Amino acid sequence: MTETTSEMRTATRTCPLCEAGCGLEITIARDEDGFERVQRIRGDMDDVFSHGFICPKGSTLKQLHDDPDRLRTPMIKRDGVHVAVTWVEAWEEIAARLPDVIDGHGRESIGVFIGNPGAHSLSAMTFSRALLTGLGTRARFSASTVDQMPRHVAAGHVFGSAVAVPVPDLDRTDHLVILGANPYASNGSLCTAPDFPGRLEAIQGRGGKVVVVDPRRSRTADHADEWISIRPGTDALLLAAIAQVLIGDGLADVGDHVRAYVGGLERLGSAFAPFTPEAVASPTGVAAATIRKMAQDLAAAPTAAVYGRIGTTTTEFGSTTSWLVDVVNTLSGNLDRPGGSMFATPVAGGATTRGRPGSGKGFQVGRGHSRVSGHPEVMGEYPVGSLAEEITTPGAGRLRALVTLAGNPVLSTPNSNQLASALDELEFMVSIDLYLNETTRHADVILPVPSQLERSHYDLLLLQFAIRNVANYSEPVLPLADGQPDEWEVISKLSLIAQGLGPDADPAIIDDMVIDGMIENAVKDEFSNVFGREPYELRGELDAMGRRGPERMIDFMLRTGPFGDGFGANLDGTSMDDLLDYPHGRDFGALVPRIPAILRTPTGRIELAPDVFVDDLGRLAAAVPALTERDFVLVGRRHLRSNNSWMHNIDVLVKGRQRCTLQVHPDDAHALGLNDGGVVRVTSRVGELVAPIEVTDAIRPGVVSLPHGWGHDLPGTQMRVAAEHAGVNANVLTDDQALDPLSGTSVLNGIPVSLEPA
Description:
The protein is of the alpha/beta class.
């Protein structure tokens, strides 16, 4: 909503820069020429979810919008140099070259990469599937396999749906164990919770306890009641030992509220028997007595929750670790109960609210395999770690073209130098992006999209993992620049060109096809609030509102969602018009128990002991010697002012002391002759780099840490501020062949490295 007084107005919106979903209050001034500029951004004190909280990133949307390096016109690479062109020229270039690749090599020769910012873009979330369908390829890759895919795999096997991800009920729990996450630096992830730090302090304020398990004494660990220093990559061993204690000591009790729906309990005792605290103490670096106490505290707490994030998922046992989080939460009696680990009810609906409640087709992987290394498909995509080999390896199905949507895989995925070289072997590449960055510099055509302030927003994906059932729709704060198509129009037109409709194709074709498909599915779903209705009737009501693109889709999702008005069936239900009347968001209440309705397993039960994970415990046990004997291992880290690679061109966020440093424990520094402020050469199986040294006792011996997303020193980019604070690219060291086999997720934490003075 916008309030106007004289030449100033105030707009409210949800911040689209990370998963927290904080509300912003934005003051805009109009100059004498009628041009509007953002004057101030601060937290929205009336936001129903964030209550005024804001981090340093949210206040920089103005700088992002005004950034002179942000692309405002398409670019075409001519004679190795990117030049600005008109939209007509850009579409004609794509229409001339993309069909040639398809005709010459087939649609399977086109690869697609969707980056992390796509999860924060309403247009990307609602139209990326149309792009994938239009391109007609199964060679799909995304940032998911360098991030959260193991969490989806675990949820899929256990609960039947990849988005049935339990989140810690932060506002009601008495005891929280955090593994591999640093919410004081990055808020939540797959746990949408504005002011995560404040919620942790509230746990302590009401007499509860916060425990952090991390190789680093992070900022979150500093504020916790207890920091447990663990060796990287061994979280699965720790959790398996906790489960063993819960079962072996008679502490396990799933609770009467879910007991009838839990399957596989009888298998767990023998499965976890080898993983006693004494057996895992050496590889984890956590004393057996500490592990036993962790299990006892979880069982004794009135309510408790275990929360694991990227430090646990980007390991060689990421999927099994995510499963063990669910196992421990269930065995301690804290699954699906207030104060424990619960499921959101997304206001716009989703896979856990549609169709028959309580059972479904379940979850499967391997409906295809990657061409070169045979990696199984997971959630319709292949490991991004295999993208380079799919481009460089000759043979049928070799990737000859690539489309990237809002991603920078040259900095964010493994063995970056290899991928950068591979991109140069493509016949054609198109990127939809705001910047000429380390990845898009390889593109033949770059299609810019509006800034975040010129787009509408609804956290369609992230609110499926929120700690409260809230909804907040944001209108664009500023109008589109002259001649700039909306992001959904860019995506749709590219899809139509790939289908052979030419450079003049109308994006409205895709828009209408998508909404008609959504309506058809809803009226055929006997559990929908519009079951049996006439599609033309619902389409007519939607069109009467004059909305197109994502707004029309979100309106339909809201109206057919669990709190929706059902197009008149529920007079108190929500809709787009309803949310427009609530500019600070609408709160539909705390999380409520959802088992059994949320389940989509064929048996209608929680599959607590799927074969895929029970069998993987053998691989985990066999890895103990290697995990114990490793010398130096590298882990990543996050910073409050950084978000992967895509906010490093904002001066206010990168100024100050250097943050792209290799953290080394004093004992290791002394043994190797390394000095604080000096430089060190770091070498892995696939690459090496030289980084500045930061000696600190906030990291355990034998572990070194380097933040990811840096390395802005490559030629051919157009990001002046980032280049001045280039840093080094940690993914030069990560190994493209090191994957979690159950999810295809790259190992970004626990990478074996060697160090020497440089």
